[in-house]
Each structure stands twice: as C-alpha cells, then as structure tokens.
User: Which sequence fits this backbone?
C-alpha cells in the first residue's frame, strides 16, 4: 500500500473512532431528555412494577446548587450546571457515589425573577462536555478534568439579547458541530466546530424562545428542527440552510417544549394557552412546504405543553396540559398522536417534568414528589409516589436503573430497579 493510501486509511479509521466515541451507550443519558432528546430511555428494562413500602431506595444524596439545569450521565461522569458564590459552574460527579470529580466556573451568576441560575442541561460527547449559561455563554471543557478548551459569548456575538427568562437551549451535537440558539439578528441558531470552536454557520433571525433543537428524520430526510420564539424551522445540519419555516408565535415567546417526530411528521406544542399542531413536510426542490395534519389551539386545546416535552410511545402522546396563561392547573393527558384525539386525562395532576422507560412514565413534580405511572392508553394507572426533594423544575435522568433528580439544594440518586 502506498504512503498516500496508508495516510487515507489512517484518517478514515480516526474519523470512525471519533464518531463512535461520540455515540452514547444505550444505557446512558448524555444530554437533555436522553440519548435521542425525546425523554425516552430506549434500552431500559427491569424497572420496578410495584411500589416498595418506602418507595425506591436512595443510593446517595449530595449538596448541589441553584439552577434549572438537568443532569447528563455518560462514561463515568454525571454533569449538571449550578449557581453558587456569584458564579455559574459546570460540575462533574461520580454517578455511582455522588463524589465530586471536578468543577469549572463558566460565567458570572444569572439572576431572574422567574428563578436564578443556569437553565440549560450540559451535553457530554466523547472526551468533551458542552455547557450553555443563562446569559448565553457556550463553553467546551475536557470531561477528564474540566479544563476549558474554548468558549463563546454566543448571544453577544450574534447581536442578540438574553431571552426574558434566560437562555435555556441545551447544546446539540450534530456530527462535528455543536448547535445552540442565540436569538440574534445575525443568527437565531449558531453552529460551532467541536474541535476548535470556530463558527460554522448561522441560521434565521427569530428570537430565541426556550426550546432546544433536535435532529429528526422528518419529511424523508434528517434535519435539525428547532422551535424558536416565533416559529418552528427545519435546518440543513451541515450548512445551516433554511429548509422550511412555520410561524408559531406565543405570548412572551414562550415556546419551550422540544419538537418531536411523529411518523415522519413534526409535532410542536406550547403553553400560554396556545396548543399543539402536527405538521407534514412536502418536498419542493431543496425545501419543503408545510401543511397541518391536525391542529388544536387556544383555551380548548387538547395539549398545551408549558415547558415539558410530550413523549411518544407506540403512537400515543403523553403530555402535561397547562390551563390558562401559565396557570397553576395542569392535567396529565394521553392522545392518539395521528389524530389528536384525547384518550384519557388525569385532571389536576400538577406541574411536573417526566421521562419514559420500560413502559413507565417517571415524573418529578414541582413540589419534589416522584410519581411513577404505567404508560398505557387505556387509563391512568399510578404505581406509586414518594416525596424526594423540595421545589424543582429540573427534568429527571435515568442510567443503569438509577434515577437522578435535583432541586436548588441537592442532587439525589434512586434505585428504580425491580
């Protein structure tokens, strides 16, 4: 083999190694809402079917800090963002023991009337961790020791302004790029090269909103789908080219839930008395025309997701329907995803965050109560509930049969295996 062919072969092997290193293991929870950003633990099995007398066993509990960031677990690291001592920090713990491994200061503290501290969940990819602060500072650090590799004030660079309730977009890894929302006139969405932090592309000029972008296979192709403060958009992940846009404006630009794929279509749902719509994409050259499959809007909507991303299981949507303009009443509901028809509703279930695993829905209420419900389209079936934390708005995380939860004071690990 020639020297040139050897070099090409070596480069190819290195590229494959990079790709494999960045693929999360099936039982990990390496980013916001899990490995596929849809709230589902795809390979979790053997979780509890009945409620122990004292609820799931607590494995460990450690002090944390202020913030709405969720938890990411991968390769022996548990990462989340907290605020303490006037700064926002990315912290890494041992997921088995809760022992701190390292911590890295990211930016000055973020304060807001709706709650202080960082909002976004960090993303673990290969040998790096990516974190986005409440002011919109994106930082890449080494997962080994937390040392900073590169950092950008993304909102400032794009000429934007921090969203009214803080920047909440969790970083998305797409190949060799990391994507976040900036909401600036120079770019609503921005992609940076993982390796050196150089800007790769920008897309759109909408305000940021509070949702996180997702890579979905919809309209017959893989595309980056994001819900901004004023629309849903499809983006070519390699170039940032706009593929389609569907206007979706809400009061206070409060589009917060992630978009999800439903049989090749796109479902978006928003609170503030807005509603839900299922969109179909029809190719027109290199772009798409957008049509509604079904829509349910306004005060009588079947689903108004305030900040919780609905979960799709076997063609059924499970979601939290918030009543009024960010009002106190929230129902748990199950819909037929293809039609939007309501199958059942548990009235006044309460504001919560939730994920799905092994045929169950695992909730943490804002009051800090763990609630486990069987995922069935037949009726509401509660397995059990237990008080675990104080006030919280952080999403749960699940890895290796361990459920990880946090509030503004503590991080806790529970054993939810049979």
Assistant:
């Amino acid at each position: 083999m020639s020297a040139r062919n050897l070099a090409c072969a070596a480069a190819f092997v290195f590229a494959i190694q990079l790709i494999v290193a960045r693929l999360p293991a099936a039982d990990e929870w390496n980013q916001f809402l899990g490995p596929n950003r849809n709230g589902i633990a795809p390979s979790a099995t053997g979780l509890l079917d009945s409620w122990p007398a004292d609820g799931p066993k607590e494995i460990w509990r450690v002090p944390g800090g202020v913030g709405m960031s969720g938890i990411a677990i991968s390769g022996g690291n548990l990462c989340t963002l907290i605020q303490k001592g006037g700064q926002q920090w990315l912290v890494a713990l041992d997921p088995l023991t809760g022992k701190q491994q390292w911590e890295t200061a990211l930016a000055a503290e973020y304060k807001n009337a709706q709650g202080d501290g960082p909002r976004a969940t960090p993303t673990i990819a290969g040998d790096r961790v990516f974190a986005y602060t409440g002011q919109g500072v994106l930082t890449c650090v080494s997962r080994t020791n937390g040392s900073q590799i590169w950092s950008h004030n993304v909102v400032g660079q794009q000429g934007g302004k921090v969203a009214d309730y803080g920047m909440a977009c969790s970083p998305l890894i797409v190949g060799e790029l990391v994507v976040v929302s900036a909401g600036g006139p120079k770019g609503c969405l921005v992609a940076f090269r993982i390796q050196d932090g150089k800007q790769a592309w920008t897309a759109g000029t909408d305000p940021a909103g509070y949702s996180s972008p997702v890579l979905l296979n919809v309209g017959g192709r893989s595309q980056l789908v994001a819900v901004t403060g004023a629309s849903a958009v499809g983006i070519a992940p390699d170039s940032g080219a706009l593929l389609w846009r569907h206007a979706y404006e809400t009061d206070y630009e409060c589009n917060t839930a992630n978009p999800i794929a439903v049989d090749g279509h796109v479902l978006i749902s928003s609170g503030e008395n807005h509603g839900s719509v299922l969109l179909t994409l029809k190719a027109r050259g290199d772009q798409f025309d957008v049509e509604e499959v079904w829509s349910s809007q306004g005060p009588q909507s079947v689903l108004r997701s305030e900040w919780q991303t609905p979960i799709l299981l076997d063609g059924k949507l499970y979601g939290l329907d918030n009543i009024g303009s960010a009002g106190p009443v929230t129902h748990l509901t199950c819909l037929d995803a293809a039609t939007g028809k309501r199958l059942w509703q548990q009235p006044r279930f309460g504001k919560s965050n939730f994920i799905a695993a092994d045929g169950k829905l695992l909730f943490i209420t804002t009051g800090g109560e763990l609630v486990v419900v069987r995922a069935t389209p037949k009726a509401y079936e509660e397995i059990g509930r237990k008080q675990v934390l104080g006030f919280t708005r952080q999403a749960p995380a699940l890895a290796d049969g361990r459920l990880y939860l946090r509030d503004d004071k503590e991080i806790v690990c529970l054993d939810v295996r049979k």
About this structure: The first helix runs from residue 3 to 22.
